[in-house]
Amino acid sequence: MTSALTSPVGILIARGGPDIDEVKIRRAGAAHLAAVRELTGAAGAALPVRPEAFHAERIEEFCLIEQLGTVIACVGVHRTDEGAELYDLAVAPDRRGIGLGRLLVAAVLLMLSGEPVAEVRVEPGEAREWFTGLGFTELSPTVLRRDTAGGYDALETLGRIADLQIEFQRSGRTLRWEPSSTALLMFAQRGGLKPESLCWAGVCGTCAVRIKRGTVSYNTDPGVDPEDDEVLLCITRPVTDLVLDL
């Protein structure tokens, strides 16, 4: 991923089984104004919403997540003398709870790390606890802040800023995700687990494990379709906390 988001970046996400969705993280343009207005006006938007005239003037400040051309998440990023301010973070009601908001914030922090921006601020309102979980700390009673964060891509940045927990249920172990791990298979092996796998011998699908809760991202299209409720450990990384049947 290029930190500047100069072109859309595709990410494959899944919650188990053969259905794998490609979403794209991109900068907004004038054509996205109506979609941003609709999304930020939806019930339960994470941050207080700016007026329409503000959006029209500053639509190019927004970063988006699209799926099949539909905007499903957005956040405004306003550069200031102090750094940058996040505003109007929103996720489509039917796409909440699968990690898209955190993925978008991670992508923004990665983007800003390539600019002369050291600090990001936000007025979280009712989302204070959510932002605290991404490493934001109190600057004032109404404002949180954190440093920008680098990484190879948005998934690695997310792993650095969020305390992602991977529960291996049958093994009775819960481990904190290490963002330096290239995939869940490597992570599990480093943690002393011994998942079945013949991946390195070219036998695709042998590392499949049932996912009981959470969202993963595929590093590449899988060579085989996972069975229902399964993910392939050798090419996936977490987007949220996970519970795996391992």
Q: What is the string of SSEs from the N terminus onward?
A: EEHHEEEHEHEEHEEHEEEEE
Q: Give, in spatial order, the strands making up the sheet with the most strands.
A: 7-8-6-5-4-3-2-1-12-14
Q: What proportion strand?
A: 25-35%
Radius of gyration: 18 Å
- Provide the helix percentage: 10-25%
Alpha-carbon distance between the termini? 31 Å
- On the 0 to 100 scale, the average pLDDT is 92
User: How many distinct beta strands?
Assistant: 15
Q: Please state the structural category.
A: alpha+beta
Main beta-sheet strand count, sense and barrel state: 10 strands, mixed
Total number of helices: 6
Shape: globular
Low-confidence stretches: none
SSE layout and pairing:
Blueprint: E1 9-14, E2 20-27, H1 33-40, H2 52-58, E3 62-67, E4 70-80, E5 83-91, H3 100-113, E6 119-122, H4 128-132, E7 137-140, E8 143-147, H5 154-161, E9 165-168, E10 173-176, H6 184-190, E11 208-213, E12 216-218, E13 230-232, E14 236-238, E15 242-244
Parallel strand pairs: 5-6, 9-15
Antiparallel strand pairs: 1-2, 1-12, 2-3, 3-4, 4-5, 6-8, 7-8, 9-10, 11-13, 11-15, 12-14
Describe this structure in words.
This protein has 246 residues and is α+β, with helices and mostly antiparallel strands. The protein is built from six helices and 15 strands. The chain has helices spanning 33-40, 52-58, 100-113, 128-132, 154-161, 184-190, and strands spanning 9-14, 20-27, 62-67, 70-80, 83-91, 119-122, 137-140, 143-147, 165-168, 173-176, 208-213, 216-218, 230-232, 236-238, 242-244. The strands form two sheets. It has a ten-stranded mixed beta sheet, with helices on both faces. A hairpin with a 4-residue loop joins strand 9 (165-168) and strand 10 (173-176). Helix 3 (100-113) crosses helix 5. The longest helix has 14 residues, at 100-113. The chain is globular and about 55 Å long. The model has no long low-confidence stretch (mean pLDDT 92).
